[in-house]
Design brief:
The complex is a heterodimer of chains A (about 80) and B (about 150). Chain A has about 80 residues and is an alpha+beta fold. Chain A contains three helices and five strands. In chain A, strands 2-1-5-3-4 form a five-stranded mixed beta sheet. The radius of gyration of chain B is 16 Å and the shape is globular. The two termini of chain B are about 20 Å apart. Classes of the chains: A alpha+beta (about 80), B alpha+beta (about 150).
Chain lengths: ~80, ~150
């Protein structure tokens, strides 16, 4: 399954990219699975996701928990806790 | 009800006038404006860049606004949030709530700001006097301020 992954703020800076399209391996079922899979793709990903639980996720532009499914997702985003307002 | 994300500045009086033009059912208008401080927890701030997640930002703001309208009898509401490069004293965010009576307008404005700060996908990067940028850390007290509303449902 092909999905667009987007990165924001310091997650974007650490991964070195704002977005990419990846083919998800069959074992990747949840957001947490996706984080684990991304983390072993290279040191820049390992650095971006180094602090467990800090990076937040959205599936199709809705906030989700790490246990959320990625099945059928068109766009998955990773970002730090928000700091607007 | 409306939300806007824009790089341009906003003019509070003009926004309120536009929101309430011709309305005779409004007895209370509350506005909140967030601005850039030149100091953050003891560190000097000479500029700020606001990044956001286009699409999701507007959806989250609209969701927060709908939640406020479900909780309080609001006649009108508006959220304007700026993105891009800002400097100290610049406007960042405007929340306007209008109701028949003041209590709903005050409470809804506080609710909108609390929710916006923990839900809407914006990220601030401050620049110091030496030109180095630093991402602003999320604030624990903002999280608690939001939880206050969840416990009062």
């Amino acid at each position: 399954m092909s999905v667009k992954i987007r990165y924001f703020a310091w997650v974007r800076e650490k991964t070195g990219k704002a977005e990419e399209v990846v083919d998800l391996p069959t074992g990747v079922v949840t957001v947490a699975d996706l984080v684990a899979w991304l983390t072993q793709r290279g040191p820049e990903y390992a650095e971006a996701f180094a602090r467990p639980g800090v990076v937040r996720a959205a599936v199709d532009q809705t906030h989700v928990q790490p246990t959320a499914s990625v099945a059928g997702a068109r766009e998955i985003a990773f970002f730090p806790p928000v700091t607007g307002g | 009800m409306s939300v806007r994300v824009q790089s341009e500045d906003f003019e509070i009086g003009a926004e309120v006038a536009r929101l309430t033009a011709g309305r005779t059912d409004i007895g209370a208008i509350v506005t909140f404006t967030g601005t850039v401080r030149a100091d953050n927890k003891g560190s000097a701030v000479t500029g700020m860049t606001l990044e956001h997640y286009p699409g999701m930002t507007e959806q989250e703001l609209a969701r927060v606004e709908a939640e406020a309208n479900a909780r309080w009898p609001l006649q009108a509401s508006l959220i304007v949030h700026r993105v891009g490069t800002l400097k100290p004293n610049d406007n960042i965010v405007l929340v306007v709530t209008a109701s028949a009576h003041r209590e709903a307008a005050f409470d809804a404005a506080a609710f909108l700001m609390d929710y916006l700060k923990t839900r809407a996908p914006f990220w601030k990067k401050e620049v110091g006097p030496d030109g180095t940028g630093r991402w602003v850390d999320a604030c624990e007290s903002d999280e608690r301020a939001t939880e206050r509303w969840e416990n009062s449902r």
